[in-house]
Design brief:
Blueprint: E1 3-6, H1 9-18, E2 26-34, E3 37-40, E4 43-45, E5 50-59, E6 69-84, E7 95-106, E8 112-126, E9 130-141, E10 143-149
Length: 152
């Protein structure tokens, strides 16, 4: 079973390359978790950060190297700037690519911090005639773990 930890751009590139950028996969499960809580009547504590868990159903094209059908659990920590825009049309749900790049974002104190940004692109059918790439999911994060899930 493969487990890949990502906290740097180099680790991100190597991991995404290993999983073929999740091309022709799809999202099996998407979970957004917060540590926010009520601490008293009318009082709440919000962290400003989320954890995002995504289970990718993924098909590898590499021959005799890895299983052709995989389930990959991705857990992203320190998530901010979450944007989700899925079309809902079944023929547009296949993943074209998941990319990760370096960026920065504002901390609670207003200072900038370095982080990573993930963008999941899917193809959308425009005017019923041409396929165009659309960023359906994007977010910034501090680190993530990709883990293969044993399937039977």
């Amino acid at each position: 079973m493969t487990i890949r930890r990502v906290t740097t751009i180099q680790e991100a590139i190597e991991s995404l390359d290993w999983f073929n950028y999740f091309h022709d996969g799809f999202i099996k499960r998407l979970t957004v978790l917060s540590r926010d809580e009520f601490v008293g009547r009318g009082e709440q504590r919000c962290s400003g950060e989320l954890r995002l868990e995504i289970t990718f159903a993924h098909y590898n094209y590499q021959r005799d190297e890895r299983p052709h059908s995989q389930m990959i659990e991705a857990s992203f920590e320190g998530v901010k700037d979450l944007s989700v825009s899925f079309s809902g049309n079944s023929h547009e749900w296949a993943i074209n690519t998941l990319t990760i790049g370096e960026t920065s974002r504002a901390r609670e104190d207003g200072e900038e911090e370095s982080c990573l940004k993930a963008v999941l692109a899917q193809s959308r059918l425009k005017d019923g005639r041409e396929w165009v790439l659309h960023e359906d999911l994007s977010f910034t994060f501090r680190g993530c773990t990709f883990s293969e899930i044993e399937t039977t």
